[in-house]
Amino acid sequence: MAGALGSLTYLAWLPLLLTVAALPRTSDLAFIGARLFSSGAFPWNVLLLAAMATIGVLIACLVGALAEAALLRGAGRGTPRRSLMRETEAAFSVLLVALLPTIAALAVLALGVAGVAPAEFAAPDIGGPLWARIAGHLVPLLVAVAVLLVVGQAVGAAALRRAIGPGAVPVAASLNAALRDLVRHPVRRIGLALASILADLLAAVVAFAVLRVIWAPIDVELAAGRLASPRALLLLVGFVAIWLALVLALGVLRAWVSAWWSAELTETDEAGRVQMLGANP
């Protein structure tokens, strides 16, 4: 259950959103952008949206921290004589600091999109899809976001397991130790971070494919205006049940990734202690 809670703050919500909600068209995006920038409330409306996004990120970090702390405690890796609330506080601080570089890069990317998109909207459609043309101008920023996401995952996972556990240290010390660990073992840490991210993405794609197949007959019923029919209601109940089952499956994946990180870091720490004992008999 803790893994399922963590997956909901990560990717488990995305397949449901992409299945149920229609993706905005290019004209919709153009209309929204024009309304934002031509409004008399500009730039306060944009700042309000940014503030709401910030609050959303903070809430997601808090729920994710609770899930990670519960996973570690459930695996017997909690801090002795420390409550779950204190564990969550430590995990929240680690997750937030580890995410800050990625969030900053995303903010710069959003500014880049805002600067490039108006010209591409007005340009003739001769260079491929609109999103591809916009992305072509922002390749360095996209690469920076991807790199910072992977590095943040590696640093955050290592720091979390030093801020929580029998040998728990303060958050600042855990982050410093995680950075040193990444420098000493860059290939293994980055490889594990990449593997976990790719596993999550693959699981989300599979969940999306399953939900799309189940949603197709429901979409037919909705288009025909038969939402209250017994068949439509039964299909909706089945759809929700299968989505919840998929969330639990993604929760198992989160628990597996958490256990993998714990085992990897424990193995490295034990190897380091053996090496130190061998050097100082």
Overall geometric form? globular
How would you characterize the largest beta sheet? none
- Helical proportion? over 70%
How many strands in all?
A: 0
What share of residues are in beta strands?
under 5%
Compute the average pLDDT.
Answer: 86
Output the number of helix runs.
10
> How many angstroms does the end-to-end distance come to?
45 Å
Low confidence ranges: 272-277
Structural class label: mainly alpha
Write the layout of secondary structure elements.
Elements: H1 2-8, H2 13-20, H3 26-38, H4 44-74, H5 84-122, H6 130-137, H7 139-163, H8 171-184, H9 186-223, H10 230-279
Characterise the protein shown here.
With 281 residues, this protein is mostly helical. It contains 10 helices and no strands. It has helices at 2-8, 13-20, 26-38, 44-74, 84-122, 130-137, 139-163, 171-184, 186-223, 230-279. The protein is globular and about 60 Å long.
Short description:
The protein has 281 residues and is mainly alpha-helical. It is built from ten helices and no strands.
